[in-house]
Amino acid sequence: MRSPIIAGNWKMNRGTPDEVKEMLKKFIPQVKGIDLVDIVICAPFTALQTLIEITKKTGIKAGAQNMYFEEKGAFTGEISPNFLKDFGVEYVILGHSERRDIFKESDELINKKLKKALYMDLKPIVCIGEHLNERESGKTKGVIEYQMNETFKDLNIEEMKKTVIAYEPIWAIGTGKTATPEQAEEIHVFIRDLLSQKYDKETADSVRIQYGGSIKPSNAKDLFNKENIDGGLVGGASLQADSLTQIIKAAENTIK
Ligand code: PEP
Hints:
The protein is α/β, with parallel strands linked by helices and about 260 residues long. Helix content is about 45%, strand content about 15%.
């Protein structure tokens, strides 16, 4: 019922046209014919033009890693959703833990960006997740519930259905430590229950919830085999064509 979505998050690691071309030259032929998995590459702003040009005739979609909630004005250094849309960008990551922790983005700010992205018809991938100390002190579900309430505040059913949620335990991002499939599934079920309470079961069943945090070809299959894990947000392993392709194939193999 929910098609898996694999989104590569290149962070600030591949941003020049040559770096984009080098990766895509290998990657595009490798994923040719995979059409039941949504494939998204979220690249730095400087890489988007090359990414969009090269992937135009493929099923690969371009995503940005951030945007501002205003369309125009005196916001030095920010990127307008209007510019992204005009460029041909389809997806946008919002509220990544690196934005929350390093750049101090609040749930309130992320909520404003989310509403604007939806208004502009950009497809948001919204990240939520707990820190290690929060997990170790048994606060994971409390943190997730708070972020769900605040980040998705005042979203109507249609808007919620268009939003992809990325559950990313922060202690697993870029650390090589992955949540076990059982740990991840437990939180995905919890998120779906919250959606069911706030909206209804049909909405909860239709929202795609990705897992993110050190996904690799070696652990992707076990994670994606879990009923409530609808693909992944992939950082490090999305930088190389081979590893990203293997992860996408693992997601494809979970489709019955
Ligand atoms: C991420 O950037 O969202 C991420 C999950 O990174 P990594 O796969 O490197 O842990």
